[in-house]
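Reviewers asked in the last cycle whether our approach scales beyond single polypeptides. To address this, we selected a multi-component target totalling 1451 residues and predicted its structure end to end. The input consisted of the following lines:
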Amino acid sequence: MTDPLLQFDDLHVTFVLRDRKVEAVKGVSFTVEPGQVVALVGESGSGKSVSSMSCLRLLQEPPATYPSGKILWKGENILQMKAERLRKLRGGEIGMIFQEPMTALNPTWTCGAQVAEALELHTTLDAAGRKARVIELFNQVGIPQPETRYDQYPHELSGGMRQRICISIALACDPKLLIADEPTTALDVTIQAQILDLIKRLQRERGMAVLFITHDLGVVAELADRVVLMRHGQVVEQGPVAEVYANPQHAYTKGLLACRPRLGVKRDRLPTVDDFMRA
Amino acid sequence: MNAAKWTLLIVTAALLIYMAVDRWRQPQQLQRVRQSVDRLELALQELSRTQRQLAEALAKQPAVIPQGNQPTTTTVHAPAFDPTVQDGNPKLGVNFLMPYDRSHYHPEWQGGTLKAFGSTPRGLNPLTDNSSTSNDVHARCNDSLCERPATHPEQWSANLAESVIISDDYQTYTFTLRKGVRWQRPTVASQAKYAWLAKDVPLTAADFKFTLDLILNPAVDCPALRNYYEDVEKVEAPDDHTLIVRWKRKVYTSLSFSMGLSPLPRHIYGHSADGTPIAPEQQGVAFNKHWFDEISGVVGVGAFIFEGYEPDKVMRFRRNPDYWGAPLHFDVIELNLEVKKDDAQLIAFKNGQVHTHGLTPLRYKAEILDHKEPRFAALDPNDPKAGRKGELAWTRFKALNFSYLGWNIRRPLFSDKRVRQAMSHAFPKERIINEVFFGLGQAILTDVHPDNQYANKAVKPYAFDLERAKVLLAEAGWSDSDGDGTLDKEVDGKRLPFRFIIKYYSDSPEWDNTLLIYKNELRRIGIDVEPKPFQWKELIRVYEDKDFDAVVGGWRMDWDIDYYQLWHSTQADVQGGSNHCGFKNARVDELADKLRATFETPERIAIAKEIQAIIHEEQPYTFFRSGEGIFVWQNHGKPATDLYLKGVTIGLDTLHPLVNRSAANWHFRE
Amino acid sequence: MLAYVIRRLLLMIPTFIGILIINFAVLRLQGPTLVEQMQVTGGMGEGATAGGGDRKVQGAAKDVENYLDRFRRSGNDLPAILNLRGFYNTADYARWLRDTVANGRHQDKPSARNKLEKELWLAGPQAVAPLVALVADEANADIHALAVQALTYCAYITLNPRDLSGLPASELQRIQQRNETLRNNRILHTNTREAGVTVVDPKAAEKRAVLLALFAEPQIQAEYAARSGGALSAMVFNTGFVDFMVKLATLDLYSESRKEYVFTVIADRWSITFWLNTIAILIAWAVSIPLGIRSARRIGTLEDRTTTTTLFLAWSMPSMFLGTLLLYHLCTDTAASKAWFPNRGLSSDGAMWFPTGAYLLDLLWHAFLPLVVLSYASFTALSRYMRANLLEQLDADYVRTARAKGCSDDTVVYGHASRNSLITMITLGSGLLAELFSGALIVELIFSIPGLGWLMLEAAVERDAPLLMGSTVISVSLLLVGILIADLLYAVADPRIRSRYV
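The resulting structure, written as structure tokens, was:
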């Protein structure tokens, strides 16, 4: 068994506010193996975004503190990395895409320039080389007329296009891991399908690991190898997708699975998770 | 962009700015060089002219060797100087002018540049531009027929006119002009365009006739001036040095207007820019917008030549080497036009950038009394000249103006003279002068300054006496019948409380304080007064509408006294009259008319004193104080090689107490 | 882009005219009236200190013609925006004249009567025909004397300096003779409360006859009709504002009180104000932006809080106060030491001859304190806004993306966030321009720098309408240009605006 790429080891994240403390993550442990697609599932407020952003230390450090636990990247503890090393990590080894594509890009920079910046930071290509690589990336993520798009501004593109640009930024430097924080929640269903296909394809082509955060169980079923369920800052269940779906152990998981509305099944009342938790 | 790119950008920008400024300065420098060269040329021309004149004088009268800066021509008085006749007081049929006094001038003290503050003139036409700045410039550069010398300003001395004879009917003035007086050459005469001005032109009586004709020409834009001369019947200049002015009526004011006349250069103002004479019917209109004013030219026969001015920078005067009289001791006078604000002016003075300045009462308190500026000598009650000892010297000087509280005699409150006298008794003059004006100013009793020869010093002051005021008010019928603390009186069947509004000029913190103190005193005798401030524009309307119970005001004083304008009963109701208070007294009317037609000084003094006594008794005004200011100058220099105005202390003591100290005869000493 | 600029420039014109109309109307509302002009003889306004005032000249009402000339040459005789004089008829003028009689409407207010009467004299050629009818009508015998006087002033023709050189000599002579006739035929009268208007002139009937005969001539009637124009056209075109705009367009604005052309006076002075303001703006931006960014990055620290407090303290000090304080303490030679900074002007004596390097240093030394006083008030606003904006931007999503890309903190702040926050700052910046123009006045006063601000103050105090309006034109133009530049900067900085509007 190869070493895990990314390992969460009893991670605790506490937000220190002026008058109180909020424990967002209370001991989360799971791993992501190379080439694996792991889905991180949970409701809003379960701590999944916090965990994923902690991977790149994107949380503002003063409110956010890490009282205990580690996140290991290839054995190195991200939480204790120096600034220089962290910068190389971000974008160079781990790529991340976010939920809101409409605001995720800088409105005053051209799309091409934003992607090229990622290349500038982590590679030694010259300007021409960078531009060529960007065009190539655009082709890979399925952006038509890449030369025109290079000089256009984000506000001239649709949401789906922008998300593709974000993906190309994340993948520009061939990272080993892609963290996708609910990338399709803000898009409409058809675009959602396209983006998911894209991610699946890219993952297969590059053989990179993906940490996919979502609350949509259907997406999980389509995309992931393993699934990790979080609730109130803790992992309640994890395991291969098929197993967990077939044989949920935890009441929460059972509740989640049971609460999916199904066509053709008539019920008087939709069950909720609470029913299962009480039981 | 990284640091290297930023540095490169800044360096390039700096270089560009450097080059641009360099390029921009060159034409300015060239122009300045050109101006200096022009001035040098002019000076050389004058030098050669003086040389030629000296040579001529030598050739003509080998016995007389004129020296250096003394006037190159001497004058001969036909009759011998009789001090009983020529005492400067007007008389009929004889020349009463004091001879011209050269004694204050010392050639060995000549030299130096005087620096003072001035303001940018708005137009320099001698007749149509009536501003104080323009008048100052012309006063420096020109002379009048007769002069009131600073040591004896109540008398007249010879100036441009050597003698004046007043006819027996008091209506004709015959002047004999001094010979050998020449007009200054304008600075533009060195230019080819104005070469027709590059000649010596003597001053003649025709110049005076030209001046009076212009003043009386209705097309010329000088209505105020024309008003003074409206009674002139005709002007004649039978020969070059005789001038006859005839007036329609016998009126005393004709004396100062005739004798104070300054000439205009006929050879310039009567010609257009190319030298052709202007047709007489065009003269008036052409004068209003004359080419000579457009180039800011000023020409006179006086002690200084106007070199010109740069707006908001500097105005320069140069000594006239050709001057017929005894000039001030400076070679150059530079007026600083740059610094305009009070605070900035004081600081410029302290930094030594000007030699003289003045202080307002508040500044006097701050700088001298509170000793904020250690370079000023402290006030010493035993030594009135204490201020002269400091590094920066100061002295008090009296101003020829006074302020007053005026009571509207037409209104029931103040129609009784006892009430007005009571108001004067309740006004704490001395205390206000000490507290509000820090001791500056002099309490006055009449509209004539106590140091003036016309003053009636026998009147008894209305001392601050609240008891006496109460008695007078009771006599006039005022009492507190309803016990509310305010006096009242039955007038026309109604109960009238003694409550009124006093209107004053709003921009003066001194009046605020004065009236506040007065209000408190009046409260103690049961009178309610409300001081109400007005903008100057509105105050003028108040005067015009005579819409006040009580009002404050001030007037300028003069060496000559005329009671018609302020106190004659005809002036009380006419529109635009100055007799705001409605003062009507038959005896004063009679005396004022008589005064207007009296020329002999002892008689005039007697009449004036009687009028003052009557006015003092009637108290249409409560006379308050005459103004006083502080004059400061540089007494010691840093570095020691700089020269400073020591001469002021010498000149100060010989002047009449009421003459403005700026008329002192200064010079530089080490 | 070019089309955008042209569109904006065209839009500026109505704005410009609108501002000028308002300024003009307000100025005229309290501008000099003929009455005030005639009362103020030689600096009377300053004479009313705790000292003295001038003894008033008696009968100053006599030479009204000179004052009328001055008024007409500066366009002050015409109403400001709308000229309704053409619609007045004889009855209106009769009523007007009866109100100026001492026992008429303003019995107790000589000043109001005075003002009313002088306003009538300003009516000019438009009043000639009705007044002639009034004088001819016997029913108005009680006010004939007043009407004749008004008529002579309205019919009086002002000669401009241009006329002197432009018109032929015969024409000039004819006009002067006419003016002479009018002057000689004024009926002397008194106007008292008790008796009303009393004629004291023995030749009153003759004078009236002469005048009526004069105005009965058809060519003279035609001449005055031509001079006054039709009532409707005169309503808009015979107004002070149109007169001003015409003079502005032909650069013919002349200041009576300074005896100089307005733009000559301004040309000497405006460059100093312009440069001072521009450099002050640059300094304000150059200091505030980095300060704001620094504060935003170190939010909550002691440094941030001290900076904020200091800046607000500085902002609460009015520039007049600070300037005078600086002048007093840093620019005055005391007995012990020489001042650190010069107390006036922008160059030392003889700076003309310094080598350029020394000259520039000298200039910097002189301009240092004025620039500080001009710009310090803007530091607070600009830097606090920058700080707030930057903080807002740093919370934005694209900053998170940039960080996730691996950008260093510096790159994020300077390369990404600042560019976006500058867009909002541009709005603020264009407001600064207007403030600076008024601030420049105070600096010019305190440090004795001859500039436009001081000129405008003097013009306002002297009620010199042409000069004030001329300076307003200049400062308004600069302001509009500044706003245009701000708009263009918007387009340059923000691509969203660029694509939408440009």
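The first helix of chain C runs from residue 2 to 29. We regard this as preliminary and will revisit it once experimental data from Aim 1 are available.
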